[in-house]
Amino acid sequence: MKMKPATLAPAGTLPDSPIEFSRPSWRPLQRVLPGAENDFMYMGHVGALQLYKHRDTRRYLNVHEETGRCYLHTERGYVPCAIEIAIERVLRHEEIYE
Q: Which of 2, 7, 8, 19 is deepest in the core (most CB within 10 A)?
């Protein structure tokens, strides 16, 4: 039986764990996008990663509560990405095909 080679996740990848719900934590979002709290819904957290969903585009902005670093959700977990890229992906209205 042939086995597929293991695919390594990029450095800094956070595991894909169940979302936990708690009181909204807006400080990480405010550091990345000051004044944008009304454009997002708080969806919960995965460890220290806070999950926010944009009200219009329905896309997630995932922000680490301590570092302010943004992450994209992939099949390998939450992968770090530049803040500018994460914001662009969340705010643009056209369809994204990957």
A: 19
Is 70 exceeded by the pLDDT of residue 10?
Answer: no
pTM of the predicted model over 0.85? no
Three-state secondary structure along 11-78? CCCECCCCCECCCCCCHHHHHHCCCCHHHEEEEEEECCEEEEEECCCCCEEEEECCCCCEEEEECCEE
Q: Are 28 and 65 in contact (CB under 8 A)?
A: yes
Q: How many CA atoms lie within 13 A of 51 on its CB side?
A: 18
Long-range contacts at 18-22 (CB < 8 A, ≥ 24 apart): 18/46, 19/43, 19/44, 19/45, 19/46, 19/51, 20/44, 20/45, 20/46
Q: Torsions phi, psi of 7, nearest 5?
A: -100, 125
The span from the CA of 45 to the CA of 61, in Å, is 11
Strand partners, 14: 78
